[in-house]
Amino acid sequence: MASHRKPRTRLRTTTPAVGLTTAALASVTLLSTQTATAAPAKPAPTIEEVQKKVDGLFRQAGTATQKYNEAKSASAKQRDEVDALLKAAAERADKLNETRRELGRYATAQYRGGSIAPTATFFLADDPQSYFDQDQLMSRMTSRQQKAVADFRTQQREAAAKRVEATKSLQTLTASQAELRTSKQEVQEKLSEARTLLSKLTAEEKARLAELERKKEAEAKRKAEELARQQAAAKAEADRAAKEKAAGQGTGSGTGSGTGTGTGGTGSDAGYASKAEKVLAFARAQIGKPYVWGATGPSSYDCSGLTQAAWKEAGVTLPRTTWDQVKVGTRVATADLQPGDLVFFYDDISHVGIYKGDGMMIHAPKPGANVREESIYYMPIYGSVRPA
């Protein structure tokens, strides 16, 4: 008997569904593998690293500033030299033209007098010397006329030499100006990089950076106070020794000179102290004015611009850059520093301050800061000099 049941429908799993599931699994696996094998993200720099980086950029900007100052000074000097040479060349050209006119008058007069051939008009061209070189003409010239020819030749050589010298000087000036532009760009790039780095810090990170700065300043101040104690002790000992010596000479045979040898006891020391007082009075008056790279006052300064301006008040002319200022005067040890001495910093001698005593200095620190008093130990010391 035939069955009247409805045939059972067979369920089918289509190939596309299986394929999609496989592809999805494969994608997940691939992404997981790539994530596992990718290089780990570079950790953010610590605040200490940021501080070191920023300090390094400001130092590099300071070095570039000295390069800029050097190039600017050389450019100004070269410009003055070029102007002087061009002026001298113009004066010689005027003399040459006057002598040319005088020779022209001689030639014209002789032509009119019939004493020379019409070819004398050749003199009125660009090369009168070639005409007057003719033996038959020279033999007929008076001593005054011959002297005019000799003067013409001399002036012609001098004018040519000055033109050559001026051309070379202009080439040097062009090179100095190119170096000036390069140094200026380098300063701007370093400062921009430092500002960008600082601008990315969060408020919390800026607070931590400020705390690190306070600790650095505190340690530098502690070292300054220690130097002040050492210097005070050394001075007290020198004064005591000087008094003992003076007392001994007073009870002796009377042959001694009676002049003290301690610190500040000689006329030379007194003269330097007088100059240093003027230097420091000027420097103190600049406290609070902004650091601006390349500036020499009166409203702003860079480090060597401040020291140059301060010592100018005492009648001493210092060079423009730290690299040249360190060569002026007498080198002194840190323990022997006196007010007015210049203290230089870093191995590349890119910064300078004016020692005021007690381990402290007045200096123009860096962009964004003002002229201020600070411990000389805030930066690594290179050496010190006594300018006068």
Contiguous helical run count? 9
End-to-end span in angstroms? 135 Å
Average pLDDT score: 80
Poorly predicted spans: 9-33, 117-125, 254-265
Cα-atom radius of gyration: 40 Å
Q: Got a strand count?
A: 6
Q: Biggest sheet: strands, sense, closure?
A: 6 strands, antiparallel
Helix content: 55-70%
Q: Report the sheet-strand fraction.
A: 5-15%
Structural class: alpha+beta
Order of helices and strands: HHHHHHHHHEEEEEE
Strand order of the largest sheet: 1-6-2-3-4-5
Envelope shape: flat
Polypeptide structure, described:
The radius of gyration is 40 Å and the shape is flat. It is 61% helix and 7% strand. Helix 2 (47-112) packs across helix 6 (203-250). The longest helix is centred in the N-terminal third of the chain and has 66 residues, at 47-112. Strands 1-6-2-3-4-5 form a 6-stranded antiparallel β-sheet. Among the domains are: 47-199; 273-386, endopeptidase fold (from Nostoc punctiforme). The chain has 388 residues and is α+β, with helices and mostly antiparallel strands.
